[in-house]
Amino acid sequence: MDKISIIVPCYNEEKALPEFYRVTSDAVNGIEGAVCEFIFVDDGSSDHTSDILESFACADSRCRYISFSRNFGKEAAMYAGLQNASGDYCVFMDADLQHPPQLLKEMYHVLKTEGYDCCAGLREDRTGENKLRSILSRTFYKIIRKTCKLDMGDGKGDFRMMNRTMADSILELKEYNRYMKGIFSFVGFDTKWIPFHNVERTAGETKWSLPSLFRYAIDGILSFSSAPVTMAGTAGALLFLAAIVTGIWALLSGNGLTGIPLLVCLILLLNGVQMFFISILGQYVSKDYMESKKRPIYIVKKKGGFTST
């Protein structure tokens, strides 16, 4: 009999977890030919998430939990869950029920009978989501498709079931700065997409603010693309030519000292652009610096429900 590991990153999800556990348990009970385990990863929550997960592990032998010493981020939580998963198939799900558990049965059937390595959910819309956030998200995915040359389209998120081969391939990528959507695409494997409609959270509030989403987007681009560096070089060459042309024009115009303010503005503009692109290069250097430290991706404070504990 196959084993399915359901990996659930959690950050301050005390309101959503009971309903998630109830609905998902009902869904997996209907999967014939497979047993399931739940691996909840508490990403340094400040509410009672850890207590709820401990109660799950005490009441249900299928439930395990890992609590981080602090908030390391969703990417680290997903990696920790995958490291501790023992299933033949592994699933990533959010605790807010925006990933429909009813699709798990179909995903398992696809992997068992159709020869795919991965079956993932394709979000068809953004119902219940802030309009500004929707516009920014769509714009980000358009940019990242062009710069990274990887299959990371809008709606192609973390909700997916994969076989053990793909899971082990992801675990081989041990970089500190992780962007899982890019990693899924990087490792390849045959993926079937199942469309589903977005729904509002079952409880609680989203932990993703616009600034955090912006940082997440920048991390994604810098992790899988050198396009910003190329853009910096191209822009530098164009601005250099523009400066020469502007200088020649100022000299030939015969305006004398009146051209000085123009040149001053031009110098300030070029210095500003230069500093901007130096910042881009600095981002790459800083990420390489963090990788060279070989720090752990996460630190475990407490575990429960595992046979070794």
Automatic annotation (TrEMBL):
SUPFAM superfamilies (alphabetical): Nucleotide-diphospho-sugar transferases (SSF53448)
Record keywords, A-Z: Membrane, Transferase, Transmembrane, Transmembrane helix
Gene3D superfamilies in the cross-refs: Spore Coat Polysaccharide Biosynthesis Protein SpsA, Chain A
GO molecular function: transferase activity
Tagged with keyword Secreted: no
InterPro entries (UniProt xref): Glyco_trans_2-like, Glycosyltransferase_2, Nucleotide-diphossugar_trans
Membrane-spanning residues: 229-252, 258-285
Residue ranges annotated for the Glycosyltransferase 2-like domain, each copy included: 5-169
Entry GO terms, CC: plasma membrane
Protein name, as recorded: Glycosyltransferase family 2 protein
